Automatic annotation (TrEMBL):
Its main location: membrane. CDD domains: MFS_MMR_MDR_like (cd17321). This is DHA2 family efflux MFS transporter permease subunit. It is a multi-pass membrane protein. Keywords: Antibiotic resistance, Cell membrane, Membrane, Transmembrane, Transmembrane helix, Transport. Residues 28-476 form the Major facilitator superfamily (MFS) profile domain.
Length: 482
């Protein structure tokens, strides 16, 4: 569920870049899209490998979510900072730094011998991805002239990102089945090294001409605050909501988030300009995206656990079983712009969320005797197609209300909201599922726990639908696409 980072304004090339012959356009496209494919792939590729990781490292049921959340929280928390760092210090330099960090962390994760080592590696991977991903797009936008060539380049970049998310389950299942769960991470090392060498040799440097500041305190505070809140939620399952082990991290997380808001209000170049949230389109769309991300992001996580732990699928079978889901979310994303022209952005966003919620209610009926055709295929297609139809119109409404100069920033805020919502949603739904699993016994308890997670997710998504109905503006977004 990672989207497009903010697109940079036209850049001023450095003198060294002016003197150096520009590399072929196809080579620039290949290098930056390869980097983007890697970071998006790693959002979803580990899902199918989670049961094998649990067995290999002795992870707890709740501990599994941190293999996902450690990556997602740091990816989202540092993404806007990564985009600004690329503008300030040079797109090529930041691309190389992010890719090197991501590759080294992948090696560390693949060689991990303890759960904390794997979670630490995933955290560093997320930081590397947050540094790398915005740079991939800004390199494209500064390497191709405005017009059809740049449009085609961005379309290719977007398709590669969607493809990385879509094939993650199949890639993870294949590697886990025939090699080991470790290769889900280790495969990044040779590919990353190859792209890294090409970037050093052939990419040219560019940076923003005007001086800008990095809001490092903001990025650290928002990431730490949401991480503490997520940890506190997890602790409630084992120790209860009244326990100090849950209340202390929850309270600390809220204090840190409040500190983040205070820093942003005073920063000269804030990571998240709070003034933008005075716009109804921006605030309502981001709120809806947080709730939608909280519900939809966990779909792959719980389906992967259900088909392997309850139905007994092998990793490869699990990956293959998700192909219709992946195709559905890509299809929804592709047809959303056309449907927006006919229906309007707000009606389409609501219709997509309703479709996804119906799929979640259906998926919540899963049991120990489930079948692929009767339990997985139908609700999965509904959930994924609805998710694909929802994201684009919500983002369109958010950007339609903002000043043209803030379009890229608002896009980045939407991506951050979606990822942060997904991370917190996974913490809540995993805690709900674990509580039901602990209260029962055997495979039936697992099926009941995973099913309850989908049922609660549908309620969260209903909250997003209600917010869209009440708060999302309509006329400006619809006019923009009418």
């Amino acid at each position: 569920m990672v989207g497009m980072p903010p697109i940079a304004t036209p850049a001023t090339l450095t003198e060294s870049a002016r003197r150096r012959a520009a590399p072929p356009a196809w080579l620039v496209m290949l290098l930056v899209c390869s980097g983007q494919f890697l970071v998006i792939l790693d959002v979803s590729v580990v899902n199918v490998a989670l049961p094998a990781m649990r067995t290999g490292l002795g992870l707890s049921e709740l501990g599994l979510q941190w293999i996902v959340n450690a990556y997602v929280i740091t990816f989202a928390g540092f993404m806007l900072l990564g985009g600004r760092a690329a503008d300030l210090f040079g797109r090529k330099r930041i691309f190389v730094l992010g890719l090197a960090l991501f590759t080294v962390a992948s090696l560390g994760g693949g060689l991990a011998q303890e759960p904390w080592q794997l979670i630490a590696a995933r955290t560093v991977q997320g930081i590397g991805a947050a540094v790398l991903s915005p740079a991939t797009l800004t390199i494209l936008t500064t390497s191709f002239p405005a017009g059809p060539a740049r449009t085609r380049a961005i379309a290719t970049w977007t398709a590669v990102g969607a493809g990385g998310g879509a094939v993650g389950g199949l890639v993870g299942g294949t590697l886990t089945e025939f090699l080991s769960w470790r290769w889900v991470l280790l495969i990044n090392v040779p590919v990353g090294a190859l792209v890294l060498g090409g970037a050093v040799l052939w990419l040219t440097e560019s940076r923003q001409g005007a001086g800008r500041r990095l809001d490092v305190p903001g990025a650290l505070l928002v990431t730490a605050g949401l991480g503490l809140v997520a940890y506190g939620i997890v602790q409630t399952e084992t120790d209860g909501w009244a326990s100090l082990s849950a209340l202390l991290p929850l309270a600390a997380g809220l204090v840190v988030v409040a500190a983040f808001l205070a820093v942003e209000a005073r920063a000269k170049a804030p990571l998240m300009p709070l003034g933008l949230f005075r716009l109804r389109s921006v605030s309502s769309a981001n709120g809806a995206m947080v709730l939608a991300g909280a519900a939809m992001f966990s779909m792959w996580y719980f389906l992967s656990l259900y088909v392997q732990n309850v139905l007994g699928y092998r990793p490869l079978e699990a990956g293959l079983s998700f192909i219709p889901h992946s195709l559905s979310i890509v299809l929804g994303s592709k047809i959303a712009p056309r449907l927006m022209n006919r229906l309007g952005a707000k009606p389409l966003a609501i219709a997509g969320a309703v479709m996804s919620a119906c799929g979640m209610v259906w998926q919540g009926t899963m049991d120990v005797d489930g079948t692929y055709l009767g339990t997985i295929l139908g609700p999965g297609i509904l959930m994924a197609l609805g998710a694909g139809l929802t994201a684009t119109p919500i983002a369109s409404i958010a950007t339609s209300g903002a000043d043209p100069a803030d379009q890229g920033l608002v896009s980045g805020l939407m991506n951050t909201s979606r990822q942060m919502g997904g991370a917190l949603g996974l913490s809540v739904l995993s805690t709900v599922a674990a509580a039901r699993i602990e209260a029962g016994d055997g495979l039936k308890a697992l099926a009941d726990g995973y099913g309850l997670a989908f049922q609660v997710g549908s309620v969260v998504l209903l909250g997003s639908i209600l917010l869209m109905l009440v708060a999302l503006p309509q006329r400006r977004a619809d006019a923009a696409h009418g």
